[in-house]
Description:
single chain, alpha+beta, Heat Shock Protein 90, five-stranded antiparallel beta sheet
Amino acid sequence: MRLPKDTRAPLLARAFVRKELGELHSVEVRDRVELLASELVTNAVVHAGSLVTMDVVCEASGAVLVEVADGSPVHPVLRETALLDENGRGLELVDKLSVEWGVREGGLRELEPAGPAGGADAERGSTPALPAGLAAVLGGRVPRQATGKVVWFRVSD
């Protein structure tokens, strides 16, 4: 799911989790996944400031895998927080309430406008041109090199 890079993203992420999990899991698991997904999406919006995507996968084992991708190459760091700190507890929650979590390279492949086929822009080394059929599918935009990361967690009953 594509999420906006603003304060609506965590709300939309929670609604997406509820829709995807439905009645497949206990209320406790749904609530936990909803909370942790919301935390990771909030981190992505606040710290990456880029497009954010989220995937929710119900695995054959009964576990739920959530992946949140953004365009920032900076990996989140689990840190200790003081009693009166107003933020910084999101990853601590993920660490304590998930079975496992991690970060991997990859993130998002942002799309940018394609240059004209065989035109002067292609010769100058700008964005490459696309074959007509592919250009139609991608709406005339091409993927850039991914520079971001994917933060994921797994929750089980």
